[in-house]
Amino acid sequence: MSKTLGTELSKEVSKRRTFAIISHPDAGKTTLTEKLLLFGGAIRLAGTVKGRKAGKFATSDWMEIEKQRGISVTSSVMQFDYQGKRINILDTPGHQDFSEDTYRTLTAADCAVMLIDSAKGVEAQTKKLFQVCRMRGIPIFTFINKLDREGRDPFELLEELEEVLGIRSYPMNWPIGQGRSLRGVYDRLQSQMELFQGDDHSAIALRPVEGYDDPAVIETAGDDLYPKLREDLELLEVAGDEFDLEKVSRGELTPVFFGSAINNFGVQTFLENFLLLAPEPAPRKSTAGEIDPSESKFSGYVFKIQANMNPAHRDRVAFLRIVSGKFSRGMAVKHVRVGKEIKLSQPQQFLAQDRDIVEEAFPGDIIGLFDPGIFRIGDTLSERSDIEFDELPTFSPELFSKVVVKNALKHKQYQKGVDQLTEEGTIQVFKTTGFEDTILGVVGQLQFEVFEYRMKNEYNVDIELQRQPYQFARWVVGENVDPGKFRVNSQLCLDKKGNFVALFDSEYAMRAAMEKNPSITFLETAP
After folding, report:
1. Which residues, in sequence order, are CB contacts of 91 under 8 Å at separation 6+?
2. Looking at domain 284-382, does it have CATH number 3.90.1150.10?
3. Strand 16-22 vs strand 111-117: parallel, antiparallel, or unpaired?
4. In the chain, what are the domain boundaries?
5. The domain 399-523: what is its CATH number?
6. Which of 236, 246, 373, 473 is most buried, most CB within 10 Å of its CB?
7. For residue range 83-121, what is the model confidence (pLDDT) as tens digits?
8. Which is more confident, 30 or 214?
9. CATH of domain 18-277
10. Angle CA(19)–CA(263)–CA(116) in degrees, nearest 5?
11. Cβ–Cβ < 8 Å for 300, 281
């Protein structure tokens, strides 16, 4: 590697921060994303989910069904610059029915921002997503949102983080009141107050103070709030955890920020602190060991495929996380799985559905590649031919439907739609052994609705989904798998790679099959 490229590479890597935002639905994730983009100058007007009737939609929600329902059902990628840093945000679906897309997206992030509703605390979907982050050992930053509404006691929320998620916390700031009595937050590290001034985000009042017993703090909190504020902050000093960046980087301690995304309160302070503490792009595991971002040869992997991002052009985009080296438009790389060299001529970067052709990109960046049908989730692209990044997991579906095409003449369009949506990871497709019926497997009911909607609107195919009684899917691995042993309360199928998958209508049926087939292994994720 030339010295010039090495210097450029290390400089660019040090500027990158790539993170995912995780939360339960309705915690305000899309709103927080919008406000972060606003500070980065990426958008001039933040569209909130509340502003549906005015026709002002959130930038990160681009699919028609998302606009209609006010939810995020696909992972968006957004990039902007702020204070000399290049930020890549992976905005994941909050809805639990799309958790598989989120799990895969988290593999492309170097850290996560966990958003919690101050009134509801840690909710079910947050727990699931947190566990994925915990498995990867990535740093987690917490933003406790909706401080402008009546919520739970801050100590109660911190206790819940430890009891439910098993992570210690360090509050970076502390609320001065909440709901109607919200006056601001006290910044513990910077020793300053951020004053709450309604919903005008054009000017955020920061007031340096000598400590929490400063007359300005006493005056702001007033007789009604100051005694509790002082008591809380003294307790944190005596009994709270100390700030330890090493523990943060290992995912053992989470810095906690209080604020209100919809009012833009606390968001800028959060962003600036986050950029100081968040990690640079991290190495990724591969068949050739860990690949470091500073390695000169380009490499990356596809973690998501999205069809029809531009319905007018019926295109497919493969999202690639760059792991090492410098990417240049038009460069030739090895498509490792198919063993061919390909040219990357139309790379794009995103602000949700808005795209720009990108000339160069660096480790940590996410780029979109035009996909003529050659990419799959998990594919490695590299200037080296001897590496493949660790395979991304396929999770076991929990709901199943047989799919029937209403118009037999539309079979070609139907097959194209099923193939593309399967490769996106929207659904899993199984073919029954014998009759070759098509059975769709999903994690949540909403995925069926989105599948039906997109088949109709993007591929012009009407389908009928017939719910099946199965509740569990297990990949079946072993010699001489006998379909005859999977006829009672179960169904043996093949997945898209030709692996055997057994579907069971109850836990009892699954256990019985395991007992009948002691030489066979039953796996929850695809082999």
Report:
1. 20, 21, 29, 30, 33, 60, 72, 75, 76, 77, 78
2. no
3. parallel
4. 18-277, 284-382, 399-523
5. 3.30.70.3280
6. 473
7. 999 999 887 664 454 456 677 788 899 999 999 999 999
8. 214
9. 3.40.50.300
10. 45
11. no
